[in-house]
Write a sequence for this structure.
């Protein structure tokens, strides 16, 4: 007797399984960023809320101005010398743990911080992910908006604040991706959310840069404050992906048992 063909239900289960495998496995390479949670420093430890350029995180450069590295539980506390200021609370620690970046979103108060990424494959697609949040400095009022401008390449970028709103321009091989805009209420915060983007490598070594951007580049000082944590910190697959995977495996198991029963009946 010929083996029975898979019925429509079986094909549907296989389709779900195929989709789940595709969703789970078809991913770009993860960008090889070091010191992902800003916990390694030169020459050693630092007090909470130390300015970026004073803390000297391993692998990172730049970050002059009002950019500090916050330890868990310190976002609402004032820092040491240099005006590492507190934001309104309550403010939750980032989901991946570790230290995190606090940057003034007024373009005239802070610069970008950067890392040279080595060992890239030319033409390969690299995924970059991180957590972002927002707040407002204590003592100020007014609704604000915040986001991160992310640059990757061998070219350059520059900030021009000669107009009422600052603008950013790039030269050469420099790609810019912006995160979703966060809307922060007066004297409030915006919760942590995961940002993800893809970049194509055009050289074996390229520079990754983060620039805090508040109020669409306005220079008036409310001020918008932008947070960043857990660069490329591994995250569990989304619940929908797990559900699809489990459904696929369960369905295949059910199909297999039915086929075995049919063969046993036919052989009897």
């Amino acid at each position: 007797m010929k083996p029975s063909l898979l019925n429509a239900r079986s094909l549907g289960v296989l389709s779900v399984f195929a989709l789940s495998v595709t969703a789970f496995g078809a991913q770009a390479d993860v960008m090889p960023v070091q010191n992902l949670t800003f916990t390694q420093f030169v020459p050693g430890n630092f007090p909470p809320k130390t300015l970026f350029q004073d803390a000297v995180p391993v692998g990172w450069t730049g970050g002059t101005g009002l950019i500090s590295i916050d330890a868990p539980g310190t976002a609402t506390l004032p820092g040491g010398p240099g005006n590492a200021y507190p934001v309104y609370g309550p403010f939750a620690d980032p989901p991946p743990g570790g230290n995190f970046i606090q940057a003034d979103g007024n373009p005239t108060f802070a610069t970008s911080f950067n890392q040279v990424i080595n060992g890239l494959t030319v033409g390969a697609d690299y995924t970059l992910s991180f957590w972002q949040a927002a707040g407002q400095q204590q003592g100020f009022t007014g609704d604000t908006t915040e986001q991160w401008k992310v640059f990757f390449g061998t070219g350059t970028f520059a900030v021009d604040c000669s107009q009422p709103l600052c603008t950013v321009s790039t030269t050469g091989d420099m790609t810019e991706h912006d995160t979703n805009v966060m809307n922060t209420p007066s004297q409030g915060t915006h919760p942590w959310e995961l940002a993800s983007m893809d970049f194509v490598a055009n050289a074996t070594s390229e520079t990754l840069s983060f620039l805090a951007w508040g109020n669409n580049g306005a220079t008036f000082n409310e001020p918008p404050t932008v947070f960043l944590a857990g660069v490329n910190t591994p995250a569990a697959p989304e619940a929908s992906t797990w559900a699809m995977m489990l459904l696929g495996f369960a369905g295949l198991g059910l199909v297999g048992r039915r086929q075995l029963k049919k063969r046993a009946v036919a052989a009897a």
